[in-house]
Amino acid sequence: MRAASLAPLSAFPLPPGWQAIAGGLTAPEGFLAAGITAGLKPSGNPDLALLLAPLGAVCAGSFTLNRVRAACVDLCAERLDARGGQARAVLTNSGQANACTGERGLIDSLKATEELAKRLGLEAEEVLICSTGVIGQPIPMDTLLAGLDPLVAALSRQGGEAAARAILTTDLIDKQIALEADLGGRTVRIGGMAKGSGMIHPNMATMLGYLSCDAGVPAETWQAMVRRVVDRSFNAITVDGDTSTNDTFLAFAAGEPLSPEHWPALEAGLAAVSQHLARAIARDGEGATCLIEVRVEGAVDDAAARAIGRTVCSSSLVKCAIHGRDPNWGRIVAAAGRAGVGFDPDAVALWLGEHQLMAAGQPLAFDRPAASRYMKERAAGAYLLDDTVLIRLLVGEGPGKGAAWGCDLTDQYVRINADYTT
Amino acid sequence: MRAASLAPLSAFPLPPGWQAIAGGLTAPEGFLAAGITAGLKPSGNPDLALLLAPLGAVCAGSFTLNRVRAACVDLCAERLDARGGQARAVLTNSGQANACTGERGLIDSLKATEELAKRLGLEAEEVLICSTGVIGQPIPMDTLLAGLDPLVAALSRQGGEAAARAILTTDLIDKQIALEADLGGRTVRIGGMAKGSGMIHPNMATMLGYLSCDAGVPAETWQAMVRRVVDRSFNAITVDGDTSTNDTFLAFAAGEPLSPEHWPALEAGLAAVSQHLARAIARDGEGATCLIEVRVEGAVDDAAARAIGRTVCSSSLVKCAIHGRDPNWGRIVAAAGRAGVGFDPDAVALWLGEHQLMAAGQPLAFDRPAASRYMKERAAGAYLLDDTVLIRLLVGEGPGKGAAWGCDLTDQYVRINADYTT
Q1: Which residue, A368, B194, B226, B418, is most buried by CB atoms nearer than 10 A?
Q2: Where are the domains positioned within chain B?
Q3: B-contacting residues in A 96-155 (Cβ below 8 Å)
Q4: Whole-model pTM?
């Protein structure tokens, strides 16, 4: 499983100075994690995870924009607000989303964090909670509470991998990564883990994402960095256009303060970790056979470029065409046209891999079998992020550029979601 | 085929005073139509249609908001603008969308309308053109031009049905309707036809719609009426979230002026015709096995209610659940939550048919097998609009209400769109 999530890095160039290391979320100094089977999932798979950050940690959170959101999301947002972004731990249960569970949902979330805080010697307000799974199902609290002692006992500097497995629901592979770089003579590490895989769409997905970093950064700076990074990663992926009630991304930083001159390099590393996790979520979209990356250039600004990319990635017709390995440029350009962003249709140029399909808004003669073969070959690898079908769109002469990621739409997606029981 | 498109009226109550009649687009006095096989489609199916409106006709047009739009759409919009909504005829070719065809696309559209105008004794500026089919393919002009003489020769008062067939592409059934009412002692008739069936989404769809009416209404009043009606019909349907380059709705009115006191009754009739056609397009969505109707009440205003309805109808997860006959209220309420419209999640009540699934934002105990059976039974009829799965959402105490229509997402949709050649 680890190989599958780390191998693709070669295909996704890292920013200068950063290199991949082992350890996931617990690679950065001082972070402990654990993942256990508490019995919340009927399958018997691991279902309870814990991340403990060092004293003094700051945490930046990014949450679903869905009007219907779970009590645990409200609780995270309120606690981070109330404490100016200070938090030490986050508990995650998978199996029950604890959304649409009314007052009981909030009572259970509060209780879980209180009981965990006691065991960790923390204030309840320093503990956050994320839930993922079936909407409308409350958490079996006896089971969860009985799991807290073994969970705390399992905390370790090697716990990142177990935590990454315990947060999964319908995901096929775990999603984690760690990078390190020398910044001003000291080693800085960033770790991350995430889960998908249905209801993935900006803004945020049924998606939980976690990041750890052993450099100290002031809370406001950290929050601004993370906001920019999320826009370029988790908010740039789509699986099926749906947005969940529980989407949460939590990024912790704790350690010796990092000099401001190195903040740009740190942000580049954060973006690489977040984009890796976001791409892994899209690639692991339900029923998907390949990752789709849409790079847009020449837009009026970066936000416009990302909007075009996201709209192309979320088009059912484009997704079906790529599943059929059909170089259907017409659907791509029609999707771009409805992104709600101004551009000159007569300026559009389009490439699929190395095959140019359009110039000046019109189709070119191209080697159709070769373009189709390109897509077939890209989808040959099983769950590797280098099996990416790359679409590049030039939409004008503006300075804006950006990327978005998605996956193909398959019969299998329909079967999974038609047969899934609420 | 006619029975399939007329039968559902019983399930969709008509406004007071209006009743269904035969004749489609040519039911209103003075309107002529024709549909022939010119040879534009490889299949040999009818592919050229013509509607001729009486002298003095006003026409209201509604067009795709896609930035990438076909030359014929620009031409229609410009001619209607330039002539204050006066137009007499519209030519439709199916087989080639003539979009992304650059300057040639415009030259061909101009040529086709000029040649047709000569044969009808009209100015070219009084003639409109719609194209539907494969994007990027220009129209084989020799074939189209050779078809104009037989097309004009075929014009008749009974031509509505042939025209309705000639505009189809991947549609499985033709879509037409006619209604009449006594308004102030005179009979007023409204006819309509439309085609789908991929790339259907607000605003407008790969959708062509046409409406005829034998009551005279001032151009500006007519345009305002049609705009309101389109919002409640063609802009309230979705098949797959994609919007085409060619979507066009053209509504013609010509006849003795109708007294303003009867305008509200006329608008009710226009809405019924347009909603019937819009529902028929959604029902005939690619691979669909049922129509989904989402009625929303209690929103802040009607536009908000429609937005919630559309978002639920366009959710892939909801569409898959209904295909699987799974009463998955969680996906419905999660989709409503991301509509970008404010409402109180704790006020949400939800019904599937007669089965209430939620109250006060939380799931109720309900008879799951019976709710699933309700969906199974509704989807038992083949291509009948009364096989509607009805979802009702109460989102608060506001005055806003509205409806939206869609269809389920099936393996078949994926197969059709993965295997379709550009």
Answers
A1: B194
A2: 2-283, 291-419
A3: 97, 99-102, 134-136
A4: 0.84
Residue B410 is nearest to which of A414, A419, A420, comparing CB atoms?
A414
Q: Quick check: is B422 catalytic?
A: no
Q: Does A345 touch chain B (CB under 8 A)?
A: yes
Identify whether the C-beta of residue A97 lies closer than 8 Å to the C-beta of residue A40: no
Query: Which residue in the list A26, A92, A206, A311 is annotated as catalytic?
Result: A206
The phi-psi region of residue B17 (left if phi > 0; otherwise alpha if psi is between -120 and 50; otherwise beta) is left
In chain B, positions 57-76, which contact chain A (CB-CB < 8 Å)?
65-69
Handedness of CA B131, B135, B140, B141 (dihedral sign): positive
What pLDDT, on the 0 to 100 scale, is given for residue A15?
Answer: 93
* Strands A355-359 and A362-363, bridge-based pairing: antiparallel
- From chain A, pick out residues whose CB is under 8 angstroms from the CB of B330: 97, 99-100, 134-136, 422
pLDDT per residue as tens, chain B (422 positions): 333 333 333 356 789 999 999 999 999 999 999 999 999 998 999 999 999 999 999 999 999 888 888 899 999 999 999 999 999 999 999 988 888 888 999 999 999 999 999 999 999 999 999 999 888 888 999 999 999 999 999 999 999 999 999 999 888 889 999 999 999 999 999 999 999 866 554 444 468 999 999 999 999 999 999 999 999 999 998 876 666 788 899 999 999 999 999 999 999 999 999 999 999 988 888 888 889 999 999 999 999 999 999 999 999 889 999 999 999 898 899 899 989 899 999 999 999 999 999 999 999 999 999 999 999 887 665 545 567 899 999 999 999 999 999 999 998 888 888 875 54
Contact list, B290 vs chain A (CB under 8 Å): none
The DSSP element (H or E) to which A384 belongs, if any, is none
pLDDT band at A92 (very low <50, low <70, confident <90, very high): very high
On whether any CB of chain B is under 8 Å from the CB of A316, the answer is yes
Q: List the structure tokens of B351.
A: 């019904």
| Contact state of B65 with A199 under an 8 Å Cβ cutoff | no
Residues 202-241 of B with CB under 8 A from A: 240-241
Q: Name the amino acid, one letter, at A216.
A: G
Beta pairing partners, B292: B389, B406
Look up the ipTM and state it: 0.78
pLDDT higher than threshold 70 for residue A73:
yes
Confidence (pLDDT) at A420: 58
Q: What is the pLDDT of residues A299-314, one digit of tens each?
A: 999 999 999 999 999 9
For residue B421, the model assigns a pLDDT of: 53
Taking residue A117's Cβ as centre, other Cβ atoms within 10 Å add up to 18
Q: Which fold has domain A291-419?
A: Ubiquitin-like (UB roll) (3.10.20)
**Inter-chain residue contact B337 with A68, CB threshold 8 Å:** yes
Q: Does domain A2-283 have CATH number 1.10.3720.10?
A: no
| A399 Cβ contact list (under 8 Å, min separation 6) | A301
Q: With contacts defined as CB-CB under 8 Å, which chain B residues touch A314?
A: 241
- A2-30 per-position pLDDT tens digit: 333 333 333 567 899 999 999 999 999 99
Contact A31, A25 (CB under 8 A): yes
Sheet holding B58-63, edge to edge: B19-20, B175-183, B186-195, B208-213, B248-253, B58-63
Contact A414 B415 (CB under 8 A): no
Place of tokens 């000099």: A259
Question: Given an 8 Å threshold on Cβ–Cβ distance, is B358 in contact with A323?
Answer: no
